[in-house]
Amino acid sequence: MFESNFPMDRRSLPYVSYWNAMKKIAARYSEGEQHAMFHDTAARVYRI
Questions:
Q1: In what residue span(s) does the Amidohydrolase-related domain sit (predicted)?
Q2: Rounded to an integer, what distance in angstroms lies between the CA atom of residue 36 and that of residue 30?
């Protein structure tokens, strides 16, 4: 599961830069694993 501290981190880097870095890190994983990282795990943990 990815996390961020936005908007507080806005002073250190733009959101687009952060998001692009997370996409590059996740690129080596399958589509299902990426979906789990960006959505499913948080939905399950936070019950949303």
A1: 1-48
A2: 10
List the one residue out of 31, 30, 29, 3 whose CA is nearest residue 18: 3
How many domains does the chain divide into? 1
Q: Which two tokens stand for residue 45?
A: 């943990």
3 occurs within a structural domain: no
Statement: residue 11 has pLDDT above 90: no
Predicted TM-score (pTM) of the model is: 0.64
Distance CA 17, CA 13 (A): 7
CA distance 1 to 4: 10
Residue 26: band (very low, low, confident or very high) from pLDDT cuts 50, 70, 90? very high
